Amino acid sequence: MVYPVPKSLDELAVFLDARVAGNGDVLIARLRGIEDAGPGDLTFVSNAKYRKKLEKTGASAILVSPGIQAAGKNLLIVEDPYIAFGKALTLFYPEDQVPAQQSQQSFVDKTAVVSKGAVIYPGVYVGPNAKIDSGAVLYPGVYIGPDAAVGEQSVLYPGVKVYRRCLVGKRVILHAGVVVGADGFGFAKPGRGNIKIPQVGIVQIDDDVEVGANTTIDRATLGRTWIQRGVKIDNLVQIAHNCVIGEYSVIVAQVGISGSTTLGKGVMIGGQAGLVGHIEIGDHVMVGAQSGIHKDIAPNQIVMGSPQRPHRDFLRIEACVSRLPEMRQTLAALEKKVADMENIIERKRKNRKVDPS
User: Active site residue: 241, 278, 284, 294, which one?
Assistant: First the structure.
């Protein structure tokens, strides 16, 4: 393993556009979490609950936001410590640069157009009329179907499948096992005839998208399933035919999105949420984990629950749910009191009827 060359805090400050509070000559050789960090390590604090660990950490320096102080600690002060930590990771642990090559153990159709600047590992299949641009990296077991395209500097990890005519943009990362362009789940007379409707559309993935391992994105029945610029999708997500995922949206693991559903820009969907088909989710909506979304959501809303409710309503309902056993006992006691009072009233009424006076 090649270890990174240590950098001084002053050098890091220039790279990260940071301000040094402390000894700018201290050397940083590694990056670690705040609990594990020791001498020679840089760590960060971006969450308020970790501030109490500032005094105890053994790190040589800490990335913090403005206004944070820690006596006797070397600080790098930045606007966003988490983003700065990410930039520092790229400096200390850069991705391996693989020289352009095309393995003789790959299969590339004679009609395919593969840039000399691409990296094609053994076991890759590139079909007829496919196009692979410069800087793209195709790891072993990648399948590129007929007329499909992979843009510049995109990375397709082992086992990725890109079906016919599907389009992958620039700087896209598809992790192992991703399937782009399998048939959408389209059947007439479901449960009776299950007559397959041909899926003749495509998947289009725009630039700077990242898709997690074993996620599946189905091709459109007609037209396209469209993953727009900057979208980040976690592992084990299912996106059905003709969906549109708006720019910079974030979809967490095990989410399922049914066909022809449209997400606006910057939508965030928590893990294991499920969305029915043919609905529209507005810009910057946040959907809580395990929610069941059954209708349109206007922009800038936070929803949660199954069926979906505004977040505040969901919290109020959940607060009541935890008290249901106690409330049930109270209700039973009140019912008994009411019944007792009714019995007393009934006896008094009967006594008045038989009163000889």
Answer: 241
